[in-house]
Amino acid sequence: MSPAAPVSRAAPDVAVAPRRAESEAAVAAFAIGALGAVYGLILAIVEPGELLADGATSFALWAAVASGVGAALAAALGYWRSRSLPGQLWRRSLPTWKLTANTLSVVIVHTVLAFIETYVIYRLIGLGFIGLPVGPIWSIVMMAVTVGLTAHLVYLSVSRMDTQRMSSLLRTFIAFGVFTAMIIAPEPDWWKVHFSHLGTFHGELSSVFFNGTLIAGGFLVTTFAVYIAHDMTALVADGVLASPRSPRIVSALFVVMGAAFAGVGLVAVDVNRLWHDVAALALAAMFLGMLIAGPWLLRGLPRTYFVWSWTILAAVVVSGLTFAFGAFSLTGVEIVVFVLIFGWISLFIRYLGVAGQSAPPEVTPRSPRRS
């Protein structure tokens, strides 16, 4: 009988983490959902007979506000407590200011995303119930369910945050915010001007969504840089990445990219064209710089990553040339580059995640025993 294999202590700890996060998410959902019920009762008293989704101050808007507040509470609590979970312990060694900034960006993004998603969902439901008033019972129940469910999903999201999840969160957040701004823009032909024209409708919800998405997305990219630096440092230590300076340089480029991204939203093009263009050019420069310097900074990543990088770079150049020769509109070029930037980020994170995974060892077939 062969000796018993040693028992690994890592597996139980990793298994405990999701159970703990699930339990805490359920408690947060009940507690914040109860606050939502109280909020629904107050709304029914103050604004009796509020329409579901019609009008400037519909139930949809109040539910979106409550959902955003509930998301902020759940995100702050969940992200802070997740520092003690397996795989998240490295965050405890971060400087206080950096940990605070990361927490703030994660909270802001989840708050804005919860507000947008709740508002859009209720507006879509409202298309089938035009003119429907929300009574007191429905106000309490719907608000409790909306806020509680939001808190549960947000708590789980922040508790399991890693580079891959943050990349998915960034893509989802940007897509929801920008597409919502495009759909509800007061000028349906905004695209005839340029992409940044979406942020010039001051006082309109569409510009709030567009500029707010860019600002919050920029903050998230700076937080993204911290996770990337951690992952790349581990790859350098394992001998996967050749350049020991790559974590510091790449994370710094992402910080500048995030600041430039936020700058595009902070300074609308009709407020100060110069600073808006400077921020946009800085964003493009950081993106192109990482594509061009990739073979030196990221030597050690799979070869297919560099094939994709040069393909994306070629697409950016072709888009610029077609605009220069009048075959492509400015809005079209901006949208193409916008999509390529986030497409590249997804590819980069994906290949960064698989870079340290070694191929399974070959199994040499054993020759049959001779009797």
Automatic annotation (TrEMBL):
The chain crosses the membrane at residues 25-46, 58-80, 101-125, 137-156, 168-185, 205-228, 249-268, 274-298, 305-329, 335-353. The keyword Membrane applies. Keywords: Membrane, Transmembrane, Transmembrane helix. It comes from the Bacteria. This is DUF998 domain-containing protein.
